[in-house]
Design brief:
The complex is a heterodimer of chains A (280) and B (309). With 280 residues, chain A is an alpha/beta fold. Chain A is built from six helices and 16 strands. By secondary structure, chain B is of the alpha/beta class. Chain B has one domain: TIM Barrel (Alpha-Beta Barrel). In chain B, the strands form four sheets. Chain B has an eight-stranded parallel barrel with strand order 3-4-7-8-9-10-15-16, surrounded by five helices. Chain B has a four-stranded antiparallel beta sheet with strand order 5-6-14-11, with no helix packed on it. A two-stranded antiparallel ribbon of chain B has the order 1-2. The radius of gyration of chain B is 18 Å and the shape is globular. At the A-B interface, loops of A face strand 5, strand 6 and helix 7 of B.
């Protein structure tokens, strides 16, 4: 079920120079959320910006209110343009309009028993992976999760501690080498995968980040014959599959056409790691 | 209160429709909107053969508006009839199928196929700004948007009108010097109603990458940014023709909708606003009724063109 509701801002805190944590309370939607879902947020009382902003769900927060547990949605967003600049100025108690839950979310049923899990993020791609780790660590406590986090520079690194607290082994890469491995997160991933022992069960990959990074992770996955899923970030119109604005080229499983456009908002944002036809 | 209006012989229970391309095939909105309450649903444009549409990015946001260059992505007439249409026809409202084609023959083929499966009305999309147009025999000069040429507009509509009993609504382009000439040509050709405006041809450039913000370079501007221009075009056309006008262009709320009706629109189309607030059409239906009650208007038809200079 899909809802379009007014949500109350509980927190809107700065995490790093350009990244904020937004916590929203609202009925109905939090209970329906699964990792990889996103919500489409509208700033009411303005036509500029006009469109909603699709933001991934970073975590579910349980808070006690008069002996009742209520669930809020945590969102981590980066200041990019007009919309996020207005959003960051909003205070606790103010309202935004939330449309959700949207998207297909990460598929967890495909995981084999005892299969190690690898999370790979580029930049803000870490945000939905925290919710995924939160869900996985609750559902399968003995799960072995390794996270590879790519960021441009150390001071922009966010949420690594949240993943550690959830029991993930965390490896970091930065473009400038200010923390961890110097280089792309896909290169760091490849380095670690080379150390896999042949008798080990192949890990399963969940990745989120910019398209070039996901493309590179997809190539590493193919090289090691690993399965996985990638979650894409895209500017959207409606968010519910009507406008066909946020499509991406995917493999035609019927093999009738060179490619098939799928809607990132509705058919995604999560796709099989080998499903996307990456543009040059 | 009497809220029903007529577009030719098509009777709508209220004047609020959803514009083509902004509401998919309605199923996308079923959890958020009481589809049965709409005056009519105008489908995403279909074409005889499936179309992949334009490359991405297809959307760009601009001040109080958005650009799109989807390029009529759709699964083609046959798939529409077998998959989408049966679901649409279960909704208790009027379904207007938007059709685009490369020639009169192709338009006739699509319209006749739709007539066979009990479609009552079609919107002839003569005005998508994001596709390549064929050069027709009737046209003078180079190939361009059909609705930019009076002769093309007349010849296409007239050819279809001779071969069908369906209600024909012609969707006009605002990208013209004088829309009233085109509107009169459409009326003379046999259109039962006119739908206007389609999006305005426009573009945006990313000053950091030095690239256009749409892969198609140009696209169609919609949203509140275009509303005052659309209102004027609806007003001008309503003065010039005797067939009803379905007015649209940046309608965000019931005040906007009433403004279009006052300018002369018999019905209105909610477009880009569906992306912003999916159930906005429901609020607009209620808001128009409240406006009429407040102003003691017992029949919505009294409101049409009530604007006085």
């Amino acid at each position: 079920m899909l809802y379009d509701l007014k949500a109350k801002i509980e927190k809107n805190q700065q995490l790093s120079a350009s990244v904020y944590y937004l916590e929203l309370s609202m009925p109905k939607i939090p209970a329906k959320l699964k990792p990889g879902h996103f919500v489409h947020i509208r700033l009411m009382h303005t036509n500029d910006p006009l469109l909603r902003r699709p933001l991934s769900v970073n975590r579910i927060v349980e808070r006690k209110l008069k002996n009742k547990i209520i669930r809020n949605i945590g969102i981590v967003y980066k200041i990019v343009g007009k919309g996020t600049n207005l959003l960051k100025e909003m205070a606790a108690g103010e309202q935004v309009d939330v449309l959700g839950p949207l998207g297909n979310g990460f598929e967890l049923a495909c995981l084999k028993p005892k299969q190690p899990i690898i999370l790979v993020s580029g930049g803000m791609g870490i945000a939905p992976l925290v919710f995924l780790a939160q869900t996985l660590s609750k559902a399968i406590p003995e799960k072995q999760i390794t996270a590879f986090l790519g960021m441009d520079t150390k001071k922009n690194l966010i949420l690594a501690d949240n993943l550690k607290k959830l029991g993930c082994a965390v490896h970091i890469s930065t473009d400038d080498g200010s923390q961890g491995f110097k280089g792309y997160v896909s290169e760091l991933l490849e380095k670690k995968l080379l150390k896999l022992k042949p008798n080990e069960l192949n890990p399963y990959i969940y990745a989120c980040g910019p398209k070039p990074m996901l493309k590179a992770v997809g190539m590493v996955a193919a090289k090691f014959n690993l399965s996985g899923q990638v979650s894409l970030d895209e500017m959207m119109g409606c968010g519910i599959g009507a406008c066909l604005g946020c499509v991406i080229k995917t493999v035609d499983l019927k093999k009738q056409q060179p490619f098939v456009y799928k809607r990132i908002c509705k058919d995604g944002p999560v796709f099989g790691i080998n499903e996307i036809l990456w543009e040059e | 209160m009497q809220t029903s209006v007529r577009l030719g012989k098509l009777k709508l229970k209220n004047p609020v429709t959803v514009a083509s391309g902004t509401f998919g095939y309605a199923q996308e909105f079923k959890e958020l909107v009481d589809l049965n309450a709409l005056g009519a649903i105008i489908t995403k444009t279909i074409t005889l053969n499936p179309r992949l549409g334009n490359p991405v990015p297809r959307l760009a946001e601009t001040s109080s508006g958005m650009l799109n260059a989807i390029g009529l992505q759709n699964e083609g007439l046959d798939n529409f009839i077998s998959i989408k249409l049966p679901l649409l026809q279960r909704i208790k409202t009027k379904i207007i199928v938007s059709v685009s084609a490369n020639s009169a023959e192709e338009f006739i083929h699509c319209v006749q196929a739709l007539e066979k499966v009990n479609v009552e009305a079609v919107e002839l999309n003569l005005s998508c700004p994001n596709i390549k147009y064929a050069k027709l025999k009737s046209s003078k000069g180079k190939a361009r948007i059909f609705a930019q040429d009076e002769n093309d507009t007349f010849s296409l509509i007239n050819a279809v009108a001779k071969k069908t009993n369906l209600v024909l609504i012609a969707k006009l382009s605002p990208n013209v010097t004088d829309i009233t000439g085109i509107a009169m040509a459409a009326e003379k050709a046999g259109a039962h109603a006119l739908s206007l405006v389609n999006t305005f041809s426009a573009m945006a450039i990313d000053i950091n990458t030095l690239k256009p913000r749409l892969a198609n370079v140009n696209g169609g501007l919609s949203g509140p940014a275009i509303k005052p221009i659309a209102v004027k075009m609806v007003y001008d056309v309503a003065q010039a023709v005797n067939i009803p006008v379905l007015g649209m262009g940046g309608i965000m709320n019931s005040d906007d909708a009433v403004e279009f009706i006052l300018a002369g629109a018999t019905a209105i189309g909610v477009g880009t606003a569906n992306f912003v607030q999916p159930n906005v059409s429901m609020e607009i239906i209620k808001g128009i009724e409240q406006y009429c009650k407040k102003n003691n208007i017992k029949d919505i038809n009294k409101l049409i063109g009530m604007f006085r200079v």
